[in-house]
Design a protein that fits this description.
Blueprint (H helix, E strand, L loop, with lengths): L2 H25 L3 H21 L7 H8 L5 H18 L3 H4 L3 H26 L4 H11 L5 H9 L4 H30 L7 H32 L4 H23 L3 H19 L2 H28 L1 H4 L5 H31 L8 H9 L5 H12 L5 H32 L7 H29 L3 H23 L6 H26 L4 H32 L5 H13 L3 H21 L2 H42 L3 H27 L5 H19 L10 H6 L9 H10 L1 E5 L4 E3 L7 E7 L2 E5 L2 E5 L4 E2 L1 H6 L6 E4 L3 E7 H10 L1 H13 L9 H4 L3
Antiparallel strand pairs: 1-8, 2-7, 3-6, 3-8, 4-5, 4-7
């Protein structure tokens, strides 16, 4: 094959890719549909000119097109790892965990249901072996939701819906290809009716083996990339090698799913990469992968579409009936999951609700694409698959793909319009007016400064300022006096703007590196939850989302259990250090938002909304500072070390800015600037290292903070520190329940607890104790103790408390005061302690 012709064809394909995207936008069609149509036309034209006798001039080009080495391995080993790996890097995994149930339902359950439904429907109406029918079901069950995602984004659909579809697109391919590999092995082994047990035993091994291989490959790659912190191109090159080595290693060496290995590697890099790589290197890596995935996605569609005319050459009339069965079975299976299983899970409170119009759009948006064609091509290439099975697989997979692209893809926007998903809600319309008003105010200020700097003609400036001012007044008045917006909605709009400003502040801090790379993604994820909470739940949603960043999650509880029972302290130390740094970062960010409320929101929504937002913001700051103070009490000195680290990073940023300014002003040369930047990079790497937190050595310092233990000597304090057990509670957790046996006394190290008994309630804060009365009176508890905020509580068992009470006068006075406050006489306490108390 002439190298000039091949090079021309490849260059022409990239030219087509460049022209297809604006054409798709002009025709308001999905990008993949345009690529598929172009590919089909090219493939059909090549066959036509090669077989026609009209002219032979285009025969070399036609032969080159039909002779391109388009094999299934090219799709599966070259293009697919790129697409899957980039998808994992672009995901907000922490936010997707909020919707993991609907994502798994669509990506795994829907795939299995579609595979079984299509397989048994085909087996019922045809003479094809069941295993071949199930193979066809697995091939056509993998969807390509990229078109739906792009359309939803173009109509400003909620981000949560986009996250669900993106999560489905990632895991859907993994599940479908794993099923394909399993049934393909049965077909090649000549097993006509595989047992369910055989399938179920093989499927988990494919998943687990691939996941372990991908995780291990990613950990090794991250370790190597971290060694080359100053070589961004080297890090990107290693990331390019990672998905391919993980895929090949899983498929060829382990015998597991290469797709799962790529997904696991991408997820691992997504979670750990931002904390191990410099921000600039991570941003460049993401940009490179976005470009690679764009090219790979476009090429895989065009090249796969080139095969469609050849794969349909042996079509028969009876095949159309089978194609109809596949279409009906696949759509019915997807509809059953979307409109049957998902509402049931929502009623059982196992899954968040997905609105009915969106489920309808997801149903019609289940487009198939290049992956389906690549899997069908893999079947046709295998010499161990019967010829008739090859023909049926090729025709049904190709026909079903064409149906989804040419029928569903071209009508998807119309369906979305009929469902009303292209119209903004009144609240979103109000939000758009607010955005315009705020933007115009900023533009007016910037234009005013610009005109002063350039000393433009006053008459021109005055006339343009008058026109601009009239437009601004109209927009602000429309935003302030909109009749369809209730006061509650105005507060919601203000909270959305405030949460958005919080996210922008975080992004600015990430660019300036005042927030460490380790915590940047976590802080940004919390900000995203706050935005979504304000949008969906208003004031209460904002509070809930903001409070979630302060709660102790399952990982923290597991770490506490490991520390208390097995004396394994490093997980708790790492999570506690993360909590320290998170709280410090949040405090710095929240303190800057007051100016945004006064400068932007007050001018749009008025004084009353601004004052309410100030109150909510002040409460958040107080809560964060209270949680931070609790940690300071537990681990004195560590917060100061983190603050010193913040100051060092800030100083490095300012120093770097000064050197850059000097270079731009030609005060220093390029060589000196490069040397200075290298020195800053080395010092920044040292400044990124977080100080070590030693949990074991901090307990005596915490005990000293309690006034109740003020009269104990050093030896007694150390013994008490070893005897106390630390417990962490979230808001709403119950520490003590009524009628529970009295076995311990509790001391509040940080946070607050509400006690309830006989219709009365009272609150306790840091340094106070509870639970002692029931223990001294030797009777079941009559109070319920509920935590009001994330709290750290120390527990002391009965024997040690009795011993401590006899020794400590301060503790005796506290017990007496507590008894008098509740109206309990000293005679009601234990006789052997009455003389002390």
């Amino acid at each position: 094959m002439d190298i000039v012709i091949v090079t021309t064809i490849i260059a022409s394909l990239f030219l087509i890719i460049g022209l297809a995207e604006p054409l798709a936008a002009r025709l308001r069609l999905p990008f993949t549909v345009i690529l598929a149509v172009v590919g089909i036309l090219i493939g059909a034209s090549a066959i036509f000119f090669l077989r026609t006798e009209i002219t032979d001039a285009l025969n070399p080009v036609s032969e080159a097109i039909l002779g391109l080495p388009i094999k299934s391995n090219v799709f599966l080993y070259v293009f697919l790892p790129t697409l899957l790996f980039q998808a994992t890097l672009g995901m907000n995994l922490r936010r997707m965990l909020d919707d993991w149930v609907p994502i798994l339902v669509l990506a795994v359950v829907a795939v299995v249901v579609a595979t079984v439904s299509v397989g048994y429907a085909l087996a019922w109406v045809s003479s094809i072996p069941l295993v071949a029918c199930l193979l066809i079901g697995a091939i056509v069950s993998t969807t390509d939701p990229s078109a739906v995602v792009s359309i939803f984004r173009s109509i400003s659909a909620p981000r949560r819906l986009g996250r669900i579809i993106e999560g489905e697109s990632l895991l859907n391919d993994a599940a479908a290809i794993a099923l394909f590999g399993m049934f393909m092995s049965f077909v090649m082994l000549g097993v006509p009716n595989p047992t369910l047990g055989a399938a179920l035993t093989q499927f988990p091994m494919l998943i687990l083996g691939g996941a372990l291989t991908g995780w291990l490959a990613a950990r090794i790659a991250i370790w190597i990339m971290a060694m080359f912190a100053q070589f961004e191109l080297a890090q990107i090159s290693i990331s390019v090698a990672l998905p391919y080595l993980a895929y090949i290693g899983a498929e060829q060496s382990v015998g597991a799913s290469g797709v799962i290995a790529v997904v696991a590697a991408g997820l691992t890099l997504n979670l750990t990469g931002p904390g191990r790589l410099p921000p600039a290197a991570w941003a460049m890596l993401r940009e490179v992968w976005d470009l690679l995935a764009h090219w790979a996605g476009a090429l895989i569609f065009i090249l796969a579409a080139l095969l469609i005319p050849r794969m349909l050459e042996e079509v028969r009339i009876s095949d159309f009936a089978l194609l109809g069965v596949v279409i009906l079975a696949a759509i019915a299976a997807r509809a059953a999951v979307l409109f049957g299983l998902m509402p049931l899970l929502t009623k059982l409170r196992m899954s968040p609700n997905v609105e009915r119009p969106y489920r309808a759009a997801i149903l019609w948006g289940g487009l198939r694409g290049a992956v389906t064609l690549a899997l069908a091509l893999a079947v046709t290439e295998s010499f161990r698959v019967p010829v008739e099975v090859k023909r049926v697989v090729a025709i049904l997979a190709t026909g079903f793909t064409l149906f989804t692209l040419l029928v569903q893809g071209t009508t998807l926007r119309l369906v979305i319009r009929r469902l009303g998903l292209d119209r903004l809600s009144p609240l979103d319309q109000a939000l758009s007016r607010q955005v315009v008003a705020v933007a115009l105010q900023t533009v007016r200020e910037d234009v005013s400064r610009t005109t002063e700097n350039y000393e433009l003609s006053r008459e021109i400036v005055r006339s343009e300022a008058k026109l601009f001012g009239e437009r601004l007044d109209d927009v602000v008045k429309s935003a302030e006096e909109s009749d369809e917006i209730l006061d509650r909605d105005r507060i919601t709009l203000g909270l959305i703007a405030l949460a958005g400003a919080e996210r922008d502040t975080i992004l600015a801090s990430m660019r300036e590196r005042t927030i460490s790379a380790r915590m940047s993604e976590q802080v940004l994820s919390h900000a995203g939850r706050v935005i979504e909470g304000a949008r969906t739940g208003g004031r209460s949603g904002y509070r809930r989302a903001a409070g979630r960043s302060l709660t102790y999650g399952p990982a923290f509880r597991i770490a506490v259990m490991l520390h208390n029972r097995l004396r394994i302290s490093w997980p708790l130390a790492a999570l506690t250090a993360d909590r320290f740094e998170l709280l410090l970062s949040q405090r710095l960010i929240l303190r800057d938002l007051g100016m945004f409320i006064d400068g932007r929101i007050r001018r749009i929504h008025g004084r009353r909304v601004a004052e309410l937002l100030h109150e909510l913001l002040s409460r958040r700051i107080e809560t964060v500072e209270a949680a931070l103070e609790g940690l300071r009490l537990q681990y004195p000195g560590y917060a100061e070390e983190l603050e010193r680290r913040f100051i060092r990073r800030t100083a490095l940023r300012l120093e770097e800015r000064e050197y850059t300014t000097m270079r731009e002003d030609a005060l220093i040369g390029a060589e000196l600037h490069t040397a200075l930047m290298q020195d800053i990079a080395a010092r920044r790497a040292r400044a990124e290292e977080r100080p070590r937190l030693d949990i074991a050595l901090q307990r005596p310092e915490l005990v000293r903070q309690f006034p109740l233990f003020a009269d104990l000597d050093e030896a007694a304090l150390k013994r008490l520190g070893r005897a106390l057990k630390t417990h962490y509670f979230n808001a709403g957790d119950i520490v003590l329940s009524k009628d529970s046996p009295a076995k311990s006394v509790y001391f509040i190290a940080s946070g607050a607890v509400e006690l309830a008994s006989a219709g009365q309630t009272w609150r306790l804060g840091r340094g106070e104790m509870f639970g002692q009365m029931a223990l001294l009176m030797q009777r079941p508890r009559r109070i319920e103790a509920r935590v009001m905020a994330p709290s750290t509580i120390l527990a002391l068992d009965e024997t040690r408390f009795h011993r401590l009470l006899k020794r400590s006068k301060a503790l005796q006075e506290a017990v007496r005061a507590s008894a008098e406050k509740r109206g309990i006489e000293p005679s009601a306490l234990m006789p052997d302690l009455q003389k002390d108390v």
